[in-house]
Amino acid sequence: MLNLAFIGRWQRLTLGLWLVCFCAFLLADTEVIALEPWNELGRMLAGFMTPDFFATEHLIDALWQTVSFALLGISLGLVIGVPLSLVYHHPLVAAGCAFIRAIHEIFWALLFLQLFGLSPVTGVLALALPYGTTFARVFHDILCRAPKDTADTFPGGTDVLSRWLYGKVAHVLPELLAYTRYRFECALRSSAVLGFVGMPTLGFHLESAFKQGNYSEGAALLLLFILLIGTLSYWCRRWLLPFYVVAAVYFLPPAAGLDGSLIWRFISEDIWPHGLRQWQLGDLGLGAALADTLGWLRGLVLSQALPGIMATLVLALGALGMTHLLVCFLLPLAYKPLSGRLLSGTSTLSLLLMRSIPEYILAFVFMLLLGPSMLPAMLALALHNAGLILFLTARSANRVPVRDEDKGGLDGFGYRVLPAIYPGMMALLFYRFEVILRETAILGMLGVATLGFYIDSNFSEIRFAGALVLMGITAMVNVFVDAAARRVLGQGMHKTERC
Question: Between the CA of residue 188 and those of 73, 179, 394, what are the distances in Å?
Fold first, then answer.
């Protein structure tokens, strides 16, 4: 039996969410067309039973490069994000940050590849830009929760920096550090994903092993990556971070010489539509060039942008509904007073696996088993995001004090614990919806016809103008959906006071 206070607004929101997601699932292509998936599944299981840790050349180097890109991306992201968090209340700053972080790291990497090639600059900037703007938003929200009356206790003449450090940062420093640590774990996953576009991280070898059917090698790489994330609290100590950063800079792969003429050509010619290039060369008048460009833009929107937006939203909404159902069903197993020590330990390990395995690999495995459709992509997104939400929500649930007078079993959990943590869980779910939309980019590279698929195709076919337009449309869709999700969730629930 649920607490009566739980019924009402949250019940309507949940039922509405299920209805929308169910409609999206009906519209999605979820046909299972794999003829004999069991042979491939058997090979995968055999590979995981016999992992080969010596099959990958330069394995230690790949592991270290994964950590290096994550460290340097987070470090530069902090350099970008901390100053922006101080002025994030300005609408233009907030809009610019929302636009930048709405574009997936893969797309930034594909863009910077055209400028810097397979250089460390490409990987670091691809992580730093979206992570820096994310830091700006979250740090601003956290700093706004600092008490306002501390400034009244400072003596006259106290400088602005001291007022900011001791009046705001000191109060919320644990939250800032905790979020930075969480974001570093995300950066490790993103760093591995950069290997899918050729960067020398663990993902490069991981993708190659799975695509070639070398499942023993792929299993070993995946287990090492999970171990890397699972032991983060042991090897990532604060006092070691300066040494790690210095070592990351020192051991970065050598950067190829940058050709300024190629960069200038990319900026001045390659990214512009054909009509405008012809106008620049004097072969077309301005009116004809604009007409040609508008016709090209119209065709791009009708043939790629609109179908891509529809597929992206259908896939993301279907994955959102699956994620919510998984969280609701598995959350009691992660609640220690209900599940017990043994089952709780098993669920902790399961959550580590769910949140550590990149969605790209999960989707690739599901596609081998189920065939090419949206269903493998939905399952991959749902498992990964449910693992993250369960990990964070279970910590909140386990902090709820256990009282003797509470009802036992699922009744007690549903009566007192679930109503206390459900608003926070829904806030995380709607926050992850923005992330799910961004993550459809990676799955588009596997052939699912989302916006990510069309962007990757344009980059592959050296149609950079189309790729940039679609990247902008992707960012605007993400910003719009995020704003709508915040409105549905309730503007006042987690909205902090303005600084």
Answer: 10, 14, 22
**How far is Cα 130 from Cα 101, in angstroms, rounded to an integer?**
4
Which of 251, 246, 190 is CA-nearest to residue 64? 251
Q: What is the pLDDT along the chain (499 residues), one digit of tens a residue?
A: 444 444 567 777 888 888 888 888 888 888 877 666 677 778 888 888 888 888 888 888 889 999 999 999 999 999 999 999 888 888 888 888 888 988 888 889 988 988 888 888 899 999 999 999 999 988 988 888 777 777 667 666 676 777 777 777 888 888 888 889 889 988 998 898 888 888 888 888 888 888 888 888 888 888 888 888 888 888 888 888 889 899 988 888 776 666 677 777 788 777 888 777 777 777 777 788 788 889 888 989 998 999 999 988 999 899 998 999 988 888 887 777 766 665 666 667 777 778 778 787 788 788 877 878 888 888 989 998 888 888 888 777 777 776 665 555 666 777 777 777 887 788 888 888 888 888 887 788 778 888 888 998 888 888 888 889 999 998 888 888 877 777 776 644 443 333 3
Alpha-carbon distance of 28 to 24, in angstroms, equals: 6
Are 410 and 359 in contact by the 8 Å Cβ rule? The answer is: no
Q: What would the two tokens of residue 197 be?
A: 């576009």
Q: What is the dihedral of CA 416, 421, 426, 432, to 10 degrees?
A: -150
pTM, full prediction? 0.83
| Cα-based angle 475, 186, 322 (whole degrees, multiple of 5) | 70
